[in-house]
């Protein structure tokens, strides 16, 4: 992997460089999944199944890219596969007495099952990867060049965050979604179909999460294995709480998580083998501590959609 | 009192959901080019058909029963805990540590008791963390328990790959193996180990604890309406911690059983799907510990048939996961069908009908 090349050439300086590079690389899937989850939760439903969506997206992107030779078609297919799972979640979680968290757990099993089922033949072959913008071209050091190869998917995610914020604040449809999430009664009075608004939010959110999967398999780490996602989809749900349901905060939080994820591999590559697996647990521990410090039993969270997690 | 029609409804709907799930799985098999009838036949034969193969199902059902309680007990308190896998892993690790530490210095029975207690305490504390965070910090228990799963697996990988590694385990890093005499033996006349008995007994105890004791009543009250429970003076925090501890202890015991009866050492085989399987069992059993025994047999059968699906039908091992996912989704959907079928409705009692309540309806 490129990270290892980076750090071998630069010695200890490689660690911060690898973390910066990892922030962009590892942060990309977090960014897409958290934006998708942000959109979903704004409409008043939780989608815990994005872990499964991420895996199915990663597999679909890789498989499509391998079979057609076009990685961009893979990205699109990943989004569509995500939207398919989103349709199931959106419909089922809005049935009477059906708990959206439970549906999310079932969707993790179903989504990862589908991904592993159809992904079996794609574990060996190598698929064409997405092109990157080489911002490190000024440097003669190949390690720096490799670290600063920025994916267009990352830039796309960077662009979506402010657009989504504008969408929530200033557009009619954004208002509909916020109304459905904050006060379903008011939304009904406005004459909006809550079912349709939530279904659409979940489907589009899952589409984004599917693209996050494509970032995993077509950008970094750029392979398809059954262990490619290790809880990123789930951490993204916690990340949205940390980001207070604000798309711009989702961006910063994703970068933080991406950096935390790069810590283990970066230290390993400079020869610190001790506790490799423990460093790999850094993002989970970080998520847990962030949730402990941001949640409080005394007040509901600032920015939380009012009807989030309510019974149907 | 529940009328028999209601009871019948709560039995028929999950069974119907599982049958529909089976049907949809057949459609899925047909769509990927396998003969659904032959697949059903293989599953039946390898899971339930013969006594010899049925024992494989029983071996897998034992940890499922224990692991399902990790979700089913807190569900009575209104908590969705899915840390089964993590509690199972730390339970297994603790059991191995104690088993190796005690070695052959004392009688095997004491070693086994020590391992079981260690596993239960470790698993219990693990889930009590999620419960405590829920109560004292309002941290979402579903997410925290899932994060604890990943942390437990990282801990397992760390210990198995380094400090506790047996240098002779090359391909599959493992801890040093337990002494042969300390292993849980098979039930006489069967290949199935005593873990099955542990599972059934624990489920029965859990049922009586939740349905027939004041403790269970208090827990169910707190799950039904937390504000009312507080006003009634119930110690909600203590209840949360205790129920979560018991739930985790069950999963920890599952880990001990896996280690002491099947694996003989702790390695990555500890997290092979008893976690997710246990969640499925708990939901399909509608969080009833007695029903969990039966559903565990079914899900254990599904897990046991993974091998034959691979060999006879060339279906990848993830088929089992897809199957579980489909059944889970169907079971969840069946929840929305309660009260939809006229047959299960209570017949109008001789009481005069109450005047219809005028509720403010919102024009749509």
Could you give a short description of this structure?
The complex is a heterodimer of chains A (312) and B (364). By secondary structure, chain A is mainly alpha-helical.
Account of the protein in words:
The complex is a heterodimer of chains A (312) and B (364). Chain A has one domain: ABC transporter involved in vitamin B12 uptake, BtuC (Orthogonal Bundle). Chain A has 14 helices and two strands, in the order H-H-H-H-H-E-H-E-H-H-H-H-H-H-H-H. In chain A, helix 7 packs across helix 8 and helix 11 packs parallel to helix 14. Chain A is globular and about 65 Å long. The N and C termini of chain A lie far apart (47 Å). Chain B has 364 residues and is mainly alpha-helical. Chain B has one domain: ABC transporter involved in vitamin B12 uptake, BtuC. Chain B is globular. The model of chain B has no long low-confidence stretch (mean pLDDT 89). At the A-B interface, helix 5, helix 9, helix 11, helix 13 and helix 14 of A face helix 5, helix 6, helix 11 and helix 14 of B.
